[in-house]
């Protein structure tokens, strides 16, 4: 083991991969992916060079929000398999020297969870205060103006006990009251349950939502709201999210993790960068990786991306480890946002930046958002705001494995239709094609993992303009690399004034380029990205 490997932990060195379990691999012919299906595909992940797998929720759930409405935190939904299947999955992942990250959804439960059933049964039930109950205003209206992410008010009236309860998402997802120590303890016990089993960490759902203003003040209006946006965006959620007390909760969760060996937590947090970095916590005792969604939220323009990357690097606390994401199950896929040619450039960016990359399943073969006919929409966000095109189904379609029926995903009717082109675009076909997206991902990962400069080295910006951006990566005592990306469709020259270089192209989005030696000037084709090993 070399010096760098010793200093950095697995969640810093490695590559993460998100699986949306409904859509990865069906093993029991019900059209929905499951745990045994994932086991069947672990060799693909190992081959690709993945170090850790994050699986979206697999717990018992009425599926109002496809598993993000949990009715039992320590069970497995029969749709996905049994606890034995889970144990086997964990073992098979560990046998392959990979890690397993579970999705933890502590902010809200399902309305079918026994905790909520008890809480709503009467005002004096011992669990009443486990959720956020509030009297109506004198005129009977909601306690304040807070909105639900999936449309409408965040308050739901309970006829029986004559109070409102708060739900940041669907009314079937009541928010827990994290100011209550019993709730805190119950969720820490949930964490321990899975950690005791050997799970390597958690991706914590909507971490910045967990504590709300204790005065329940109205949120201010968003002066930049436009009608195409989700109704939730009419207000700025300054009182319903990101409250200072949340950091104490995150610290407590971290303490649980730290009482085990080398476990970790990624926080799902959609906040501006200066706020995001506070989730690393005081002395880095918060989330190991507050998810950084800048490559999703920043317009795909060279200058803006270069600036965003540098702002992030500059905002990180000392010892705060960076991370990067291009897509996830809530967002349009990278190929659909920037196009197929730029998606290759994006892959190079994701896998050469400093910090842990998370790959969303299917991005490695350039899967695109799939158009879902109106009457097949399943996502509540799409169904509740039908005129806004906000359904997340297009980015959640079944994985395209091969050119057999349903892409090898299932031999039944898939729960969501596949892309029409799955017979052409799939893992099997792309594995055999050196020019495919899959080959590009595989080679980028391989090189990144071989070269300390790429997986743990320093990042230095070199140049950016309207078309391109360039940076170097360097770990002491190792060869330096330079990444030059053309974010436009037109050719351009890379001729930095204050940086002279000589190097060989070792990887390129157009592999024909590889092996070429350049010094000080490079002419790049449109949509081209190159990675050079620099001479000393
Ligand atoms: C964030 C999850 O990523 C999303 O899929 C879900 O709908 C909400 N949290 C509510 O749990």
Automatic annotation (TrEMBL):
Entry keyword Hydrolase: yes
Domain of life the protein comes from: Bacteria
Pfam families, alphabetized: Alpha-amylase
Segments for region (Disordered): 382-404
MF GO annotations: hydrolase activity
Every Glycosyl hydrolase family 13 catalytic domain range: 18-396
Gene3D superfamilies for this protein: Glycosidases (3.20.20.80), Golgi alpha-mannosidase II (2.60.40.1180), Oligo-1,6-glucosidase, Domain 2 (3.90.400.10)
Keyword tags: Hydrolase
Family membership noted in the UniProt record: Belongs to the glycosyl hydrolase 13 family.
PANTHER family linked: ALPHA-AMYLASE FAMILY MEMBER, NEUTRAL AND BASIC AMINO ACID TRANSPORT PROTEIN RBAT
Protein's name in the database: Alpha-amylase family glycosyl hydrolase
